[in-house]
Amino acid sequence: MKKRQWAIIGGLLILVAAFGLKNKLSQSTETETPKSITRLKALRVDEVKNGPVFLNISVDGPVQAQQKIDLFAEVNGVLSLQATKFEAGRIYRKGEILLDLDNSEASSSYRALKSQYTNVLGQVIPDIKIDFPTHFDTWYKHLQNISAGKWEAPKSTNDEKLRLFLSARGIYSAYQNAESARLRLEKYQIRAPFDGSITEAMVEPGQLVRVGQKLGEFMGQGKFEMLTSLSTTEAPLVNIGDTVYLSSSESGHEYKGIVFRKNAKIDPSTQRLNIYVLLEDARLVDGEYLKGTISGPSLNNAMALSRKLLHKQASIYVVKDSVLAEISLEILHQSPEEVIVRGLKNGDLIPQKPIAGAYVGMPVKIISQ
Q: pTM (2 decimals)?
């Protein structure tokens, strides 16, 4: 009997010990389990300050001489020998002879027609003195000038009878024939239309030149224009007369120009509008590539931001009550690196850098500057 009682008591003690061990292990497990902690995203912010933002639109493109022409022959002839050889790099002043063709035949024809006009004019002078005495001095002086080698057009008159009389005597037709020969004679000499230099020479002295043959290329100095293009949103912001600041990465030179032409038609191949910039600088070289900015108008109540801060292309995160909120923006202008926007209020806090994994309602901690 006693053995049975001791066995029961021992079993109870074992159960109590097992139950106590279980509770102890359970408490130990609860103690070791860490409590979940909410981690705050630390970031630096900028305070929004809206105001006027001066627009700078990036442009680039090649420059070319504003005055550049191809030289062609209008008459047949042999290129005569000149003191200054016609070759690339030669500099000429306006009016200097670039090319001189043999004009002996054309010169002879002009002299003959000029002499014929002088003879016809001399035959009508006595009749003018008798029938139109008030016009005699004018026409007699004209005859003296022609005879002295001073070529000039017949004097105009309001007297209808005199005009019919001169026409019937062949005065006007004789003059037109001589004038046509004179103009043709001038085509045997090609003169510089402006100050510049030869950039391409395609003929040699003594060579036979034919009508329509290209002789070379002549380029002016100092005046250049640059062709660039803008998007359909940027083009309306640029006006004729806007200042353009440009530079060359090759030479390091800086230039200042103005917008002087805008194309009203979109280029189908690029879907952009062409803008032309006028530059006056002797350091420029035809074909040089320039980059720079156009100083456009100021945009009021706006702010410039890094494009990296944009979310969904036209939204941005702001910090409100220690959490992130999202605000939609009005994009006024954008460049590869920044955008000019409206929609933010003065005093709004925006992150200085993009936030990885950001979402609306994300708790954040602002780090003091």
A: 0.64
Handedness of CA 101, 104, 106, 110 (dihedral sign): positive
* Amino acid present at 283: R
275-309 pLDDT, tens digit per residue, is 999 999 988 989 899 999 988 778 888 999 998 98
Question: For the domain bounded by 45-53+300-366, which CATH number is listed?
Answer: 2.40.420
Q: Is 246 exposed, middle or buried (0-12, 13-18, 19+ CB in 10 A)?
A: buried
User: What are the residue boundaries of the structural domains of the chain, listed by start?
Assistant: 45-53+300-366, 57-65+221-297, 74-102+188-212, 104-186
22 — pLDDT class (breaks 50, 70, 90):
low
Structure tokens at 140: 């007699």
Model confidence at 274: pLDDT above 50: yes
- Contact assessment for residue 366 and residue 321, using Cβ atoms and an 8 Å cutoff: no
Contacts of 209 (CB under 8 A, 6+ apart): 73, 76, 77, 78, 79, 101, 203, 215
Establish how many alpha carbons lie within 13 A of residue 319's alpha carbon, considering only the half-sphere containing its beta carbon: 23
Rounded CA separation 52/299 (Å): 5
57-65+221-297 fold: Elongation Factor Tu (Ef-tu); domain 3 (2.40.30)
Q: Fold for domain 74-102+188-212?
A: OB fold (Dihydrolipoamide Acetyltransferase, E2P) (2.40.50)
DSSP state of 2: H
DSSP code of residue 175: H
Does the structure show a pLDDT above 90 at 213? yes
**DSSP bridge partners of 65:** 224
The predicted-structure confidence for 338-350, as pLDDT tens digits, reads as follows 888 999 999 899 9
